Amino acid sequence: MNAVMKLDSVKLIESPRLWVSERPVFLAPEQLKGVHRFHKSIPGYARTPLCEWGSYAEKHGVRSILVKDESKRFGLRAFKGLGGSYAIFRVVCEELGLDPLETTLGDLKSERYREAVSKMTFITTTDGNHGKGVAWASGLLGCKSYVYMPRGSVEARAQAIRDAGQAEVTITDLPYDDCVRYTAELAETNHWYLVQDTSWAGYEKIPQWIIQGYTTMLYEALEQMREKGYSRPTHVFLQAGVGAMAGSMLGALCNIFKEDLPVVSIVEPEEVACIFESARQGDGREHKATGSEITIMAGLNCAEPCTVTWPILRDFASYYFACADEVAAQGMRKYAAPEEGDPKVISGESGAVTMGLLSRLLEEEAMEPIREKLGLNEDAVILLFNTEGDTDPENYQRIVSGKGLL
Ligand SMILES: Cc1ncc(COP(=O)(O)O)c(C=O)c1O
């Protein structure tokens, strides 16, 4: 068991770094060339902004705070479409026997392939953002998709998925992980393609493509950092549901920076913190979260780690944080009302938790020991990912206006 430190609404585990394994080959730069090439070929592609919060950084004695703002991604208000679209592209290429490095989205829509492609059907489970990406990417290719949502999903998110593509969307009464199992069965029975943003034993190829797909946002961010004069981040905070996104960023970072890896912290909701729980148990294996599974961070409400990325998070992350919902709410408000001179960012519950945590670390006196431990000092160049915008607009307004409970 690894020791848990608790300070107010934040819990922390420091990685014992016991299980050091190989860097993940599938996230090495040469494996990712086709990913960025594919995303650039999507009509309307543009880099999302990298916002710099110079005033806030100066006020709290760190060198820079940079936020990659995925609320602007492809009009989908979240980063997730990067993974779903690349995986669907790879599935179609494989099915038609095409080389993904020689094929474009335009080829798949051409007269030659259009009919065969349109017969393919995709299915997934989502708490919102991934399903929207799958619906959108299927729609781009003229394919049908089925999207299932766990209990408690809000209708606004279901409607946003319907609006994004040709998707049939159902809100079930199942918890997230059971919903995933249900859609896996439906895929098998109906010969549909399951495009799921988590993995388990025997289902790894498509999740790996999704995880590769996410890396476009990291490569863009590093390019934008260099343009601003920063050679690398010293600290990266990554929010996790199943940990696929965090593992993608971390796996790609360790392939790029090797021994000079930034200090990477994984951040989860405390009521559903499966990566934190796996780190706490400390036996090297992944474990289910133990909390109530009730959180405002819908995108992070996943109780079972992604098996492909857990070893990356176990071996290369420095810290694991579990945060109460009020930390995410604080992050949303911080993004909505920054210091004078810093750009405003629209950030939803799952997007904002890392900013909520960072602001507590920087602003609260009681956090000084953690600040020191992490090395959040005048040399720190801190990178955060705002992974979603106001994907639940009503709740966003409630929280940001201070009318919510948090
Ligand atoms: C907005 C947002 N941020 C972060 C994540 C976390 O991704 P993962 O489940 O890969 O850890 C999700 C997942 O759905 C999400 O929707």
Kindly list the characteristics that best describe this protein.
2 domains; alpha/beta; Rossmann fold; 4-stranded parallel sheet; 8-stranded mixed sheet; 12 strands; 16 helices; single chain; binds pyridoxal-5'-phosphate; 406 residues; 14% strand
Walk me through the structure:
This protein is of the alpha/beta class and 406 residues long. It folds into two domains: 5-76 and 215-400, 3-Layer(aba) Sandwich (Rossmann fold); 81-196, 3-Layer(aba) Sandwich (Rossmann fold). Helices cover 44% and strands 14% of the residues. The chain contains 16 helices and twelve strands. It has helices spanning 29-40, 54-59, 81-96, 105-109, 111-118, 129-140, 155-164, 176-190, 205-227, 244-257, 274-281, 310-316, 325-336, 349-363, 368-374, 393-400, and strands at residues 5-7, 10-14, 50-52, 64-69, 121-125, 144-149, 167-171, 193-194, 235-239, 263-269, 319-323, 381-386. An eight-stranded mixed β-sheet has the order 1-2-11-10-9-12-4-3, with helices on both faces. Strands 7-6-5-8 form a four-stranded parallel β-sheet, with helices on both faces. The chain is globular and about 65 Å long. It starts with a strand and ends in a 6-residue tail after the last helix. Pyridoxal-5'-phosphate (PLP) binds next to helix 6, helix 10 and helix 14.
